[in-house]
Write the structure tokens for this entry.
Amino acid sequence: MNVHDLPTPALLVDADALTANLADMADRLPGPRLRPHVKAHKTTALARQQAALGHTGFTCATVREVEGMAAAGLGEDLLLANEVLDARRLGALVDDAARVTVAIDSPETLAAAARGGVREVLVDVNVGLPRCGIAPDRAGWLADEARAAGLTVRGVMGYEGHLMMLPDAVERARLTEECMAKLAAAHADVGGEVVSGGGTGTYAMNTWVTELQAGSYALMDTAYTAAGLPFRQALTVLATVVSVTDHIGSLPGWAVADVGLKALGMDHGNPTVSGGQVWFVSDEHLTFASAEPLRVGDKVQVVPAHVDPTVTMHERLHVVRGDEVLDTWAVDLRGW
Amino acid sequence: MNVHDLPTPALLVDADALTANLADMADRLPGPRLRPHVKAHKTTALARQQAALGHTGFTCATVREVEGMAAAGLGEDLLLANEVLDARRLGALVDDAARVTVAIDSPETLAAAARGGVREVLVDVNVGLPRCGIAPDRAGWLADEARAAGLTVRGVMGYEGHLMMLPDAVERARLTEECMAKLAAAHADVGGEVVSGGGTGTYAMNTWVTELQAGSYALMDTAYTAAGLPFRQALTVLATVVSVTDHIGSLPGWAVADVGLKALGMDHGNPTVSGGQVWFVSDEHLTFASAEPLRVGDKVQVVPAHVDPTVTMHERLHVVRGDEVLDTWAVDLRGW
């Protein structure tokens, strides 16, 4: 199939860029040294490629992601790197022979894990990002409580998310070391084999974790590209030019493509169009000025400012090489 | 069912606010004077309530919305107020006895309509918003071309979208009149019965259209509320507090709820939490400081900054009165 025959807006993944990204990361962090985060692509077909490279343990952000991975036969070692107050759906997967580990950072989330039938946990440690995670000096206490409740404590996790986008790699490395020192101290108190953390932004410098939770490296993101990472931008949204106006009154000409707020993650701002200047984004439209004259019916590739929330808006993604559609994958881990 | 038993994040609609909004608009613009825009809620169950009040013609923004409305038996008079280059799916609905009208603003979109099997069109006229729409003085020419191609031209549409959020109602009314003068001039050249346009922001002052395309009035939006409209904010996202930190080092305390970028339209900025100050939003988390002490497991209602792109991220919405869930509706018009 030719890419121009796809209904638009359509999510495109450059097959060669994806393959290169997966291979480069697997070279650097082979097998279980990487626990790919599926939240970045929400696509079991893509996860299957990561598993084929030897990364058979996965990181998830939602219960639905855990369920979908287990249903796809990728349930060998699933970590829900997030806190939940109702773990019954996770417990049901454990009963079905998936291996599910959940993060805990409080007595309440510990109790929910035990009550829901999850048997293995990681203690989530705050290493500086103001989000989830228990204070490092309380981690050992929580691990003791978990073991007393009959849970297996596999170790710790801690995410230095506030450092991922720091443009200065030296400063990023220095602060990563500080964060990981906190995680190591907590780990000494908690015990277990696993020290899980990190992400695409610190994949090259976070040498302290036993497993890195990177996800964005597969499809990449403009912000990560700006931070000087070697992975290639693989994801675009294909759109059709549905209207062109030469000019009206004093306004110069513009074009309108059929991709809008409902097809683009907007929290990092407007998308970009090669050779164009974006004016604004509406629900189903992108209004932009183009350096090259465009005609109604032309196709444009739009680069979203933030990949993760963009992918989750689409039902499928198309793997392409040039103008050829090689494969179409369901984005099957959406929702909660 | 109690609202606190819902898995979170969960989209909630206040039943009484919705009922009041629908009734107030139907009082002002009864029956066919309103052509509700389904893009605002993407939910056929809600559209059915609008139809029960007498609004049996609907506005859609995507082919999928038109298909879903027809499949739900709401295909009496569907307007796709948008340009498409491939109208075959619309033509198939016409063959199945739905009445489908599509907007055209160029020879290319005219040809697509004819080729796809759509028989009725509106000429989309640019009235000032730099998006779709032909220049007013070219509208008559396009209508002639459409009739020559065998299409029925029902009239014109023009959307003064750039005026919707103007805070000064007097200025909004003055500029609406200017825009509608352009639409009226085009209508004189085009002919037909229909003059379609307007939206929630101009519902009270746009007295020139024969049918108003308002959608947001049903669930409303914080920006529209700020513009002094009388409709009530009906939509919130229910979230669970999954982590609470008293303080770490010099950072004051914060809470984390399980609602993030993948459950909130972010193009108008951060959401708000009653009694709280939002710090930042991550993929699946909202980090905020709360005036009242919160505990892990507490529920919070989050008000998204933009309703339309929020609704489209959810599979269902729950109609609630206080803590009681009265009904659950599928958000069944998502995608393209």
